[in-house]
């Protein structure tokens, strides 16, 4: 299942590039899935890691994912997929609200995704400085609010034993990037 999901995502994201670089977009979902796999999470969750941006950023729909990978994978991907018809603020508030009450597997995917994005942003800041903010739909202050809100809500409902180490890593990167 994981190899099929990776191949599916590679095809779906073909030709796409990361926001602040010429890196192939697929490098991001691969890193997210690898982080989830390194934690020992289920094949369904790792597969969702590969597929997490497919419905949001390509012409693939959740029903296509459900048909190819089953209900569980489609459910995880759908819970993390933003509605691009909404404003940036509405989409980010939805993610924050989702974190408060969603099952832990979806939290694991959301934070793995946000961590990888923020690590990339931190690297881009070192190379490009403050100019990177012009490439985003929201500037520094909004990104600060969003990332701090994620930190504030990501632990909701989790027992200490269920918190992966990369949640704390995300907190550390938020602190480094936003002070």
Can you describe this structure?
- By secondary structure, this protein is mainly alpha-helical.
- The protein has ten helices and no strands.
- The protein is globular.
In short:
This protein is an all-alpha fold. The protein contains 10 helices and no strands.
Task: Assign the CATH superfamily.
Answer: Hypothetical protein af1432
Number of domains: 1
- The total of helices stands at 10
The secondary-structure element order is HHHHHHHHHH
Give the biggest sheet.
Answer: none
Instruction: Name the structural class.
Output: mainly alpha
Roughly how many Å is the radius of gyration? 16 Å
Blueprint of the fold:
Blueprint (H helix, E strand, L loop, with lengths): L1 H11 L14 H12 L4 H9 L2 H4 L4 H8 L1 H10 L7 H14 L2 H25 L11 H15 L10 H14 L1
Helix pairs in contact: 1-3, 2-3, 2-8, 3-6, 5-6, 6-8, 7-9, 8-10, 9-10
Quick tags:
179 residues; mainly alpha; Hypothetical protein af1432; 10 helices; globular
């Amino acid at each position: 299942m994981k190899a099929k999901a990776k191949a599916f995502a590679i095809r779906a994201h073909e030709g796409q590039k990361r926001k602040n670089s010429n890196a192939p977009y697929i490098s991001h979902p691969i890193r997210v899935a690898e982080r989830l796999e390194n934690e020992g999470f289920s094949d369904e969750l790792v597969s969702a890691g590969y597929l997490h941006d497919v419905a949001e950023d390509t012409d693939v729909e959740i029903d296509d994912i459900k048909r190819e990978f089953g209900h569980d994978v489609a459910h995880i991907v759908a819970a993390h997929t933003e509605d691009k018809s909404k404003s940036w603020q509405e989409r980010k508030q939805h993610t924050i609200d989702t974190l408060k009450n969603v099952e832990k597997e979806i939290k694991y995917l959301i934070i793995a995704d946000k961590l990888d994005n923020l690590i990339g942003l931190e690297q881009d800041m070192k190379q490009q400085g403050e100019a990177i903010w012009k490439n985003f739909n929201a500037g520094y202050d909004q990104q600060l609010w969003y990332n701090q809100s994620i930190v504030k809500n990501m632990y909701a409902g989790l027992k200490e034993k269920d918190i992966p180490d990369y949640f704390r890593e995300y907190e550390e990167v938020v602190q480094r990037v936003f002070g």
